[in-house]
Amino acid sequence: MNSLVPPTTGEAVPLAGAAAGRLALPDPSPDELPWPAFLREVVLSPSEVDVDVLELVAVVDSEGIKGFWEITYLPSDGQAGQAILRVAAKETSKSSHRLSLDQQSLARILREQEVHIRWWECPEGRSFPINVTAAARTALPISPGTGRPAEQHLIAYYQGRVTWEDLFPDPDGNNTSSHDGVDDDDPSGVDTSRIQSYIVREFVEALKGINDDLKTAAHSPKACMRLALLGSVSPIALARRVLEAADSDERTPTATGFQLVEILGCLDAARRYDASPLFQDDWLTLVDEAAAKVAAM
User: Fold this and answer.
1) Angle between helices 280-296 and 222-230 (to 10 degrees)
2) Which of 40, 125, 197, 205 could bridge 59 with an S-S bond, Cβ 3.0-4.6 Å?
């Protein structure tokens, strides 16, 4: 047994009380902050009205609520965070609360990844993590400060006139434009944005790019497949922009129907693309999901 004991280094210090001042005592443990046990989760989830819009959802155990509680942004510079949701003691029967977020609020929440919770037992509050539902992942901004690419920007991407980096530039880079190389007007000076024949022609020229992009995605990991089929730059995103143009009377029913059917044709062709054997089933499932969404449109 003695051979297993490592040799001592230096002179032993007898613990007889005479070593006071010669030993460093451990720092006292900080008091444990109370935890809002009534709050089950805070998540980002697609809106029940528009799947492209994310909402903050707080799920609670209403039976465990004994008083007021609120959600705020994280405090900064010693100042209390701005309130996002306040629930009075008499309003504690709901099991969930959905909060609409504008782009600025969403960007802040994604950057901080936490909110601050104050409740009747802990008025000073504590931070609480935010999760993201699986359905919300494709609606998340690709990079901070960027919104959803417009139809002409998606067309330009599929035509090869702009790159992914042009659509979603590095927020810390020198390039402040999110759509460099995309001209909204014709070089002749004529505004063609509402001329149906021009719109359809540009769309037809993008179809090959859509097919090529999907062929590449078929050999990618599942996360990349999902982005290419259902993300911010995908046939689904393009179909939604087309439908929005129709809803605002910027697109004729004939042109809208043509575009949606052609997008559906690209997805139908994608079912026959050779994917990695490991992800073949995932590819077919995602293609079917995307096709069903376009068919519903």
Assistant:
1) 10
2) 40
Closest CA to 267 of 284, 245, 279, 242: 284
Mean pLDDT, residues 213-240 taken together? 92
How do residues 77-118 score in pLDDT, each as one tens digit?
767 778 888 888 777 678 889 998 887 888 888 889 999 999
Quote the tokens at residue 271: 């079912």
How many residues can be counted in the chain?
Answer: 297
Give the list of residues 6+ apart from residue 262 with CB closer than 8 angstroms, or none: 203, 204, 207
In three-state secondary structure terms, 6 is coil
Token digits of residue 121: 């037992």
174-203 pLDDT per residue, tens: 554 445 545 554 544 555 566 788 899 999
- Give the C-alpha separation, 260 to 240, whole Å: 9
**Pairwise CA distance, residues 99 & 15, whole Å:** 60
Number of DSSP helices (H) and strands (E) in the chain, helices first: 8, 8
pTM of the predicted model, to two decimals? 0.64
Structure tokens at 270: 């994608």
3-state helix, strand, coil in the chain (%, to 5): 40, 15, 45
Phi and psi at residue 118, to the nearest 5°: -115, 140
**Residue listed under structure tokens 């539902």:** 133
Q: What is the largest CA-CA distance in the chain?
A: 95
CB 272 within 8 A of CB 291: no
Residue type, 76: S
From the centroid of its chain, how far is CA 251? 29
Q: Are 233 and 210 in contact (CB under 8 A)?
A: no
